Amino acid sequence: MHLHSNLASGMAVLEAAEINNQALSLSRQGNYADAENLHLQALHIKLDAVGENDLTTATTRNALGELYLKMGKITDAEEQLKKAVSVRMRNGPAYDAAVSVKNLGQVHEVKGDFEEARRVRLSHPADIMVCGNYDCPGETFDRSQLLACSRCKSAFYCGGACQAKDWRAGHKTFCKKRA
Fold this sequence. Notes:
globular; 2 strands
């Protein structure tokens, strides 16, 4: 995150970040509706304070996209994640950009479009890919270090343990639809 131009915008971003943290907590508890409302509130604060092209706004858009995936609001997830990818690819740390790209790929998996999921994930520089397992420790990988799912070829993993964990966590639902 870069320094904001004035104290007021910086304070607004801090307020919004706290609201995002509350939303993430609610999401982990399964309270998606209230989490959505808080993320939207934080998004509006950030848009007013620092605008669309700020990394903090993109962070909120990514979190909102992840939440919409959980809620099954696929069109909304895609809209938020495309905006997050756009900003994070231009301005963000490689890891953050790679997470948003992975999430956008997941949108296409849910839609059953595995070719597009693969294209999205491979359309960015190879050094900014992340493991497809949500719980994998935060690091980027070169594409050559990752293994593609042997069935759908659209999800990528740092190893068998992460692939198995993601399979159990939900990839199997979408991957089996392809078969």
